[in-house]
Design a protein that fits this description.
Layout (H helix, E strand, L loop, with lengths): L2 H23 L22 E2 L1 H11 L6 H13 L9 E4 L5 E4 L5 H18 L2 H6 L1 H13 L15 E3 H21 L4 H19 E2 L4 E2 L2 E3 L12 H5 L4 H4 L8 H13 L15 H8 L3 H16 L8 H16 L1 H4 L5
Antiparallel strand pairs: 1-2, 2-3, 4-7, 5-6
Helix pairs in contact: 1-14, 2-3, 2-4, 2-14, 3-4, 4-6, 4-7, 7-8, 12-13, 12-14, 13-14
Length: 344
């Protein structure tokens, strides 16, 4: 590949990343003085807010230094709308920004991804004063997770829905671990408590959800014993849940287990690169590929979704997909020397 083409690829990644950051900015409600101010919707110019997806959108906005203040507005919106138990509901805002609440898809994963967002926000901005000011509310979010935890260390998706999902628990593990590190940075004595919770959760995932016979994870567990069988030909959740332990740092991509899971996923779903509408594109799979150093396929995924979803303005392109598009672009740019400027 000629050097001019290499630099064209880098410039294209930058341009497409910037375009999606701009698209994500359009998803945010900016109305100072309104209770909706800072919320991030699924799509631009509409008021359907699912905080789980919004957490990813805000994480992507952190890649733009000029958007850090927008992320803080979102962080403030989230805390302002906490329920008494530290959970948060989905919100539907009408054209006058009047809100209706709806039951969330989960409580554990919403909280876990928010705590990771807070920690990443602090890493990018060093706005320690914001963290200190909001520490009681942040601990309320963390304790929401604690209150959802079963004896095996795993969290229920909802207080009233007693299923423990691998995906959610990986996100919760990361959130608790990130929050514990943030508290440790602050010298807060509760850092060890939340760190212990994160480690107990990791142990619970290993003991309760790892299937050593099939060398893969169970997608969920109900109650104390019941776990569904695993069919890796089933894309969701059986196959896709296998990527989450690597995504959230429970296992290393280059470890034997991490490598084997990546190979299993690719062998069972080799067409993940070319998922088309009306299905969701699952850009998170491109990010996952980049963690394994499979930069070529990660780049191909971005190129494909740009043509099939972004250029066509597909309705299945929403804030979480755009977020992982941005995060994958950022990772490919950060590691361009590992895949563009080396001889194959």
């Amino acid at each position: 590949m000629a050097c001019s083409n290499l630099f064209e690829i880098i410039q294209a990644l930058k341009n497409n990343m910037a375009a999606q950051i701009g698209w994500l900015k359009g998803c945010q409600i900016l109305s100072p003085g309104s209770s909706a101010d800072g919320a991030i919707g699924r799509y631009p110019d509409q008021g359907w807010v699912m905080p789980y997806f919004a957490n990813f959108a805000a994480m992507a906005l952190l890649e733009d230094v000029n958007a850090h203040h927008l992320v803080e507005r979102y962080l403030n919106w989230y805390l302002a709308n906490l329920e008494d138990d530290g959970s948060i509901k989905d919100y539907h805002y009408d054209e006058n920004l009047n809100a209706k609440k709806a039951l969330p898809d989960s409580e554990d994963a919403y909280a876990g991804t928010y705590l990771s967002l807070v920690a990443t926000y602090h890493e990018h901005t060093q706005h320690t004063n914001w963290v200190i000011k909001n520490l009681p509310s942040l601990k309320k979010v963390a304790n929401c997770i604690v209150n959802l935890t079963d004896r095996d260390g795993l969290t229920f998706a909802l207080a009233k829905y007693r299923v423990k999902y691998l995906m959610d628990n990986c996100e919760v593990y990361r959130g608790l671990a990130d929050f514990a590190r943030l508290l440790d940075f602050l010298g807060d004595q509760e850092a060890s408590f939340f760190d212990a919770r994160a480690k107990a959760l990791a142990t619970g995932i290993e003991k309760a959800l790892w299937d050593s016979r099939q060398s893969c994870y169970h997608p969920s567990k109900t109650g104390w014993w019941l776990r569904p069988g695993v069919n890796l030909k089933k894309f969701y959740p059986d196959a896709t849940c296998q990527i989450f332990p690597v995504l959230y740092g429970l296992i290393e991509p280059g470890s034997d287990r991490g490598t084997n899971l990546y190979e299993l996923f690719n062998s069972n779903h080799p067409d993940w690169l070319t998922i088309k509408p009306p299905d969701y594109p699952w850009v998170i799979l491109g990010y996952y590929a980049s963690l394994h150093g499979d930069y070529k396929r990660a780049y191909e995924k971005l190129h494909y979704v740009r043509e099939e979803y972004i250029a066509t303005k597909s309705g299945n392109w929403f804030c979480a997909e755009a977020a992982f598009f941005v995060l994958t672009c950022a990772r490919l740019l950060q590691r361009s020397g590992a895949w563009l400027f080396t001889r194959s």
